Amino acid sequence: MANDFYIRDAVEADLRRLTEVELEAAERFAALRNPPVAVDRCLPHALLLEGIQQRRLWVAVVPGHQVVGFAFAGHVGDAAFLNEIDVLPAFGRRGIGRALIDRVERWARACGYERLALTTFRDIPWNGPYYAGLGFCELTEEQVQGELVSVLEDERRHVLAGWARIAMMKTL
């Protein structure tokens, strides 16, 4: 199974598919009691296009050239930032998410970043616990500083009560 997908830079022709992947991946949250996010809230195409142009948006592709996942990165303060990562549930548990994160880490190192940050849900298994297993550490409220404070506060405003939204960091 290790060779049943590959990671490449996203191209403009992928934009529509990225939205489809994001929506379908979000359906996993809808199955939870009191789902934490609205499943129709997607990254704007203009933002994704910027990611394509700046070569910080990657897709996972399976045989037949079907895009089944993507990762979009940027920065917050002096750290690289994983803005979004989505993999279609039908293609989960194949190492696609890990490969996308590896690609983001390589990009971050090449850009001179020493840390990679992300925000996620603490208690949803394919979120906080998954990233902890990849070497990310949860930041305390005191450790969340600068632009990351704004990112986390904005995300918390869009989440239903009862779900802890956290920031995590990994040293590269």
Give a structural overview.
The chain is of the alpha+beta class. It has five helices and seven strands; from the N terminus they run βααβββαβαβαβ. The longest helix has 16 residues, at 15-30.
Summarize the structure.
With 172 residues, the protein is of the alpha+beta class.
Secondary-structure element string: EHHEEEHEHEHE
Tell me the fraction of residues in β-strands, as a range: 25-35%
Low-confidence parts: none
Largest sheet: 7 strands, mixed
The number of distinct helices, counting runs of at least 4 residues, comes to 5
Largest beta sheet: strand ordering: 1-2-3-4-5-7-6
Helix content: 25-40%
How many individual β-strands? 7
Overall average residue pLDDT: 89
| First-residue to last-residue Cα separation | 27 Å
> Can you tell me the overall shape?
globular
Instruction: Report Rg.
Output: 15 Å
Structural class: alpha+beta
Q: Helices and strands in order, then pairings?
A:
Blueprint: E1 6-9, H1 15-30, H2 45-53, E2 57-62, E3 66-76, E4 79-87, H3 96-110, E5 115-121, H4 128-133, E6 137-138, H5 147-157, E7 165-171
Parallel strand pairs: 4-5
Antiparallel strand pairs: 1-2, 2-3, 3-4, 5-7, 6-7
